[in-house]
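#dry-run=false #mode=assembly
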Amino acid sequence: MMPSRRHILRIGGGLLAGHAFPRLPLAGEPVEIRMQGNADGSQVWFDPVGLHVEPDQAIRWVNHDPGNSHTTTAYHPKNFDHPLRIPERADPWNSDYLLPNETFSVTLEVEGVYDFFCIPHEHAGMVGRIIVGSPGRPPPSTSAAQALPEVVLQTFPSIDEIMHRGVVRRT
Amino acid sequence: MKMRFAAAAIGIAALAMPALAADQVEKAPPSGAYKKVSELVKLPDFLPGLGQLYVDPKTLPAGPFLAYDHEGRLVSTVYMLPIEDLSNKDKRFDDLASPGGKVDHVDVYFNAGHPGVEKPHVHVVLWHVPKADETRVAGK
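#status=ok
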């Protein structure tokens, strides 16, 4: 059965007012991944950088960086010829640029490991990893032509760490 | 006859003067080929720490970017130089325009990237205002 994906792009941050973070989501509530950066733009990151969820859990990225735009973009050949680093049967996503307080949501149904990046900040190591259900096979190794920057490979939390901790915050 | 040629030459020169004159940059929007950065790429209109940016798209990625405060007053000129270019011995940035006038002080710092300059780069900021006035473009 072909899995389906649902994604919603919302404009405006009012929906998020009052959200504490991190905490376990209530039933039906999306889990939030924050897009962040420091004041001079020298550092940018996803927080959490690693997350374990069950199938059908909604994930919502929120741009909390007042001075920059960010994307959440799945590692997939359909996204700028990037290597495949999500389950083969899963559909890729690309939020396009989110201005401050804009959000983007997906619901991931296929079990496995999903790696994603921020288009303008991949080379600065702004990447993250979500494991849905059982991790199964790890992301395939990539060819030399598709080699990822070293900073990217260093930023992904290990599958073991995500499965053990559930949520891996940025350190 | 000579007088007639001379008069014609003066007339042509006078007509050409506006094109030759320097762009007006002290107040936003600057004249000439400058465009508002937030209308070229998806970025906030006012960037905390920098202000409202204008650039001639032909000069990307280096710039100059002209930065204005909330009242539209020029506060700095910014150059954005990709790290990979700075570490390339065959790459140079020569003759970058500097239309903003007197420079009070200069900041140089790393930036992770943003739409328009999507790779890690360096911001070279020529401040045209005193250090104390940098607050005019500070984040809230």
